[in-house]
Amino acid sequence: MHPFSYTRVSDTREAVDAGRRGGRYIAGGTTLVDLMRETVERPETLVDITGLPLGEITATERGGLRIGALVTMSEAAAHAKVRTLYPVVSEALELSASAQLRNMATIGGNIMQRTRCTYFRDVTADCNKRDPGSGCAALHGVNRTHAILGTSGACVATHPSDVAVAFAALEARVHLLGPDGTRRVPFSDFLLRPGSTPQREQALLKGELITAVEIPALPRPLRSGYLKVRDRQSYEFALTSAAVALHIRGGVIREARVAAGGVGTVPWKLPAVERHLVGERPSGALWSAAAAKASDGARPLQHNRFKVELLKRTVERQLRVVGGTK
Amino acid sequence: MSPQPQAAVGAPLSRVDGRLKVTGKALYAAEHDVDGVVHAVIVDSSIGRGRITSIDTGAAEALPGVLKVIHHRNAPKLPYRDNSASNNPPEGRRLRVFQDDRVRFHGQPVAVVVATTLEAAQHGASLVEVDYDAERPSTDLTEAEPDEPTRYARGDAEAALRSAAVRLDLTYRTARNHHNPMEPHATIARWNGDKLTVWDKTQWVVGTQTELAAVFGLDLDAVRVISPFVGGGFGTALRCWPHVVVAALAARETKRPVKLVLSRKQMYLGTGFRPSYEYRLRLGSDRRGRLAAAVHDLDAETSSYEKFTEAVLAAGQMLYSMPHVSQAYRTVPLDLPTPLWMRGPGFQTASFVIESAMDELAHELGVDPIELRRRNEPAEDESSGLPFSTRRLRECYSVGAREFGWDRRNPEPRSTREGDWLIGRGMAAGVYDTARMPARARARLDADGTALVEAAATDMGPGTYTSQTQVAADALGLTVRTVTFRLGDSLYPPTPPHGGSMTMASVGSATLDACNKVRRQAIGLAVGDRESPLYGVAADDVVVRGGRLHVKNDPARGETYRRLLTRNDRTHLEADGSFAPPSGPQRHSFYGYNATFAEVAVDATLGLVRVRRVLGVYDAGRIISPKLADSQAIGGMVGGIGTALLEHTLTDHRDGRIVNANLADYLVPVNADVPDLKAIYLDGEDREADPLGVKGLGELVMIGVAPAIANAVFNATGRRVRELPITAEALL
């Protein structure tokens, strides 16, 4: 670990000031401290934001939910409104990490977490994300767990978060506070595909602080859920995952929100699958036909070819589970 | 067998050191409070093979707190005396730290930074700049040139195979596995003149002592190794690894006591592993399943500098009856660190292959897997012609089949479904060598009626403290609470390595001997003492119970140790005990056996395998400590689940880097993966094996689990997976 200075802030303006001067925000620290120990991250200044008043979950006027950036994963997962309105969010959270980590880690930190690509996390390996221009060791290396969607020649690392997949599916918005005021960024614009600049992972301006994630109101009734496929039953990142929310009325799917995890360089929204569902009646054939589009555009690597088929099956299964047909 | 009543042995006692452990008072290697200790952090090579061309330590040395950076350019030449007689090392030339510029594997220690704080040492280590002349390493088992094989043959297996009615030709692959104990390797080294004291994580204080004496050219008694608690080992601490030498060297060079703890990542870089195998097995049988021949061709990983071999051939020679066997075992030298024994060494791998193949043969013939094994049950050990000391595998099968509900298994693959889950049941036989080696112990009975027993043994988790206390208590006729057992110090009487499931048979028998001698001394004193109520009684008629000596058939006639010793002005009685397996030609074949049963659920659509239950039935001889035995069995089964479904050390062959050197990416089972696990021990003992009648348990409980799971996966899905671990891509 490299030496660093540490400061606590008590209001958001103070935080943004410190951030603008180059400070790195730290809340639960479950990702950042790990990476500092490996010297992957070498911040000079840590700005502890856990004293900020960003720990509330509130209902928005129009029937959505605003989850404060400092709400812990376990608090969000246990929250009655989250559980009843958006099971896909609470399930994604509960299938993440371990109980101990969920008690520490925050929602804002969760969507900021960095990839589990083992080459990224090993400072002696080539990695464009960590050391731009050094190359991507994963591209032709051991890449079973890597991305098949949204990749580039510069980076094939997956975004590791589960709840971000649910947020992407639900088309959440990220609330930001920066030196120039507040703004709201659609989730799909917040996390960036690697392209030729994999070191740039979020659409954040210097000093900007995540204050909340807002889930928009969706038509009711809304059924939703999250499926995570992995080798181990707990405490492991996804090989593939699917977040599904369906609004079915009169026996017809009126709205569909579907995204996949474990397969993309960012949480992977599946608009082609959604389009295939809307206006149709739930059936096994529909799930299968819709899910067949889940891997469109996939570019598998040497060891992760299986994800192309597994992703389709994961989406099909979760459509069936949420849609409630055989 | 002791004439003493057995009150403690066989009782389901909790660990005598349990309270120390749960209150944090049990001190592990890195936790000993050594005055003035400074910290060392190793710099690992970032290439897989080549030479170091330069080392720049300037930035590290400029850091406040950094005392010294040691590497091959400034390290003293160390004697590295031959130590082949004592440490049972693989043939070859052991890795010598900082003695030359060669890099032999990715992550080899190339320098060490010593600093007054851990933080400074860690930061300093990240600032050491090493340049290399790198070569492409060879790390792929299937691509490299093997050594000359070790061979075994009886009969003419190739000819018998050609004429067999049924032939199978099967190739299996097993992944490299790392031990991953909870406690990392750690060493504190302190010099006092030419005398070296080391607090170390080790499964053999005597082995670490002899190796350090050899490396530094010291007399054996100039080195003391202390290791009272070990936080898991599974074999990784059976060898004195280079980092232990680094710690001692750093302490000598800085003239300060030095603490060196390996990071979790470094646990994968130079402290041994279960090698990966490619194992081709050809079986020939008649139509009824009577085996005629087996031809085994095995390739296994080893390092470029040492040839590591393990007992992977024995099971193929003796588990089933067949006239013709041929085996060729080739090690493949690779740019890797040297492997080491890991729980159930050799047998674990052989058992996966043989027991999977038997299941394949059973399916091919349409014979029940248990029935097939019964048809091939040998009358004697066909590799030696010796009778088995005890072999109760048939009983393991019948008890297991009954308890597991084997008759409810549908032999037709893919025939049992529950929703999205396919259900399968499988079984395997297991075998492990009953190892025993010479051991000593010392016992002392004090006039206050308490006793102290000492041996240089280890307790890496099986409960040596507790089980040795049980043996000692019964032999002395004391309660467990009045007996203290001490271990983990090279000053105590020497014992063999704490591995190969031999501690109870070896150390336990030495403890028994020492305590029997002390008890007999006391009885001798009493029956010769005119003032004793036992005066004149035949010594053989006296037993001791609860610290009181009495006539066996007349409990009222007797007196306590305390009274006897006090009256005779004896502060204590003491004796040295020993055990050695009989010398000369063996008269029996000694093995422990099991039948292991597994039930799995497979989501074939998503490629998920979930173990539902595992049952092991063990012919392990006498069980000294049933509660600890259950802990062993559960741990072994969990290890077997890991081997079967999760554990796999991954190498990037481009540069020899291990890419999953951490516990997030190298998967071991978590609680959710560990279902209903049950162990049953056949009542009995092995009187030929050792005075306690035990056959060893720690390895045996892991063997058979992986093939039982693989066979259950086949029963569930109809998909035969011949590569471990079994992961989603093999089942989609």
Spatial extent as radius of gyration of chain B: 27 Å
Helix content of chain B: 10-25%
CATH class of one domain in chain A: Alpha Beta
User: Using only CA atoms, what is the Rg of chain A?
Assistant: 19 Å
Distance between the termini of chain A: 53 Å
Shape summary of chain A: globular
The helical percent of chain A reads 25-40%
Q: What is the correct CATH architecture of the largest domain in chain B?
A: 2-Layer Sandwich
Q: Residue ranges of chain A: pLDDT <50 for 5 or more in a row? A: none
Strand order of the largest sheet of chain A: 4-5-8-6-7
Number of helices of chain B: 16
Look at the structure and give the mean pLDDT of chain B. 97
Main β-sheet of chain A, in a few words? 5 strands, antiparallel
Description:
Chain A: InterPro entries: CO_DH_flav_C (IPR005107), CO_DH_flav_C_dom_sf (IPR036683), Diverse_Substr_Oxidored (IPR051312), FAD-bd_PCMH (IPR016166), FAD-bd_PCMH-like_sf (IPR036318), FAD-bd_PCMH_sub1 (IPR016167), FAD-bd_PCMH_sub2 (IPR016169), Mopterin_DH_FAD-bd (IPR002346). The complex is a heterodimer of chains A (326) and B (732). In chain A, the strands form three sheets. Chain A has a five-stranded antiparallel sheet with strand order 4-5-8-6-7. In chain A, strands 9-10-11-12 form a four-stranded antiparallel sheet, with helices on both faces. A three-stranded parallel sheet of chain A has the order 1-3-2, with helices on one face. Among the domains of chain A are: 5-48, Uridine Diphospho-n-acetylenolpyruvylglucosamine Reductase, domain 2, CATH 3.30.43; 223-323, Enolase-like, domain 1, CATH 3.30.390. The termini of chain A are far apart. Chain A is 28% helix and 20% strand. Chain A is globular, with a radius of gyration of 19 Å. By secondary structure, chain A is of the alpha+beta class. Chain B is α+β, with helices and mostly antiparallel strands and 732 residues long. Chain B contains 16 helices and 31 strands. In chain B, the strands form eight sheets. Chain B has a seven-stranded mixed sheet, sandwiched between helices. In chain B, strands 8-17-15-14-9 form a five-stranded mixed sheet. In chain B, strands 18-19-27-28-31 form a five-stranded mixed sheet, sandwiched between helices. In chain B, a hairpin with a 4-residue loop joins β27 and β28 (608-619). The longest helix of chain B has 25 residues, at 503-527. The radius of gyration of chain B is 27 Å and the shape is globular. At the A-B interface, α12 of A face α3 and β29 of B.
